[in-house]
Write a structure and sequence with these properties.
Helices cover 36% and strands 28% of the residues. The chain is of the alpha+beta class. Strands 4-1-3-2-5 form a five-stranded mixed β-sheet, sandwiched between helices. Bound molecules: flavin mononucleotide.
Amino acid sequence: MTIAQLIYASTTSTDPRPSVEEILKTSRVRNKQSQLTGFLCFRNDMFLQVLEGASSAVSAQYARIANDRRHSKVELVGYEKVGKRRFSRWSMGYLADRGDMQSILFSYSGQNEFDPYGMDYRTAIEFMSEVANVGERAGD
Ligand SMILES: Cc1cc2nc3c(=O)[nH]c(=O)nc-3n(C[C@H](O)[C@H](O)[C@H](O)COP(=O)(O)O)c2cc1C
């Protein structure tokens, strides 16, 4: 089966202010049910998320996420059909915003700023793969 990979960037809404813990809790239960995997980055009030799985499941979940009022300015970074999952270990991995991410950001952007809207698809995939590997303890 072909795997679809989708990446988007978004910005948290201020009212209500979202709880990342809560988002992760729901995501992990739901994603296991629909065999979705992926990774979520959160920094400076912005999200960068990759979702992967069957194309129908990815599209359906993205539609739900895009309508979630806990964030706005949802922008598709890219969508691709691939042969293999990159984040198969995580129903939704997450690396808390720590120093680790700072140094990875530096190597990807020449600066320490997290700018998910300015990332191209390839860079975003590589960036999140690296963050995911640093965050082995990110849980599943
Ligand atoms: C930044 C962000 C990322 C999210 N990621 C996921 C996810 O990976 N999987 C998921 O099931 N829900 C995710 N959600 C939650 C969904 O938007 C939605 O609340 C959830 O799927 C329940 O949908 P329902 O209320 O239509 O049942 C995310 C929400 C936000 C704000």
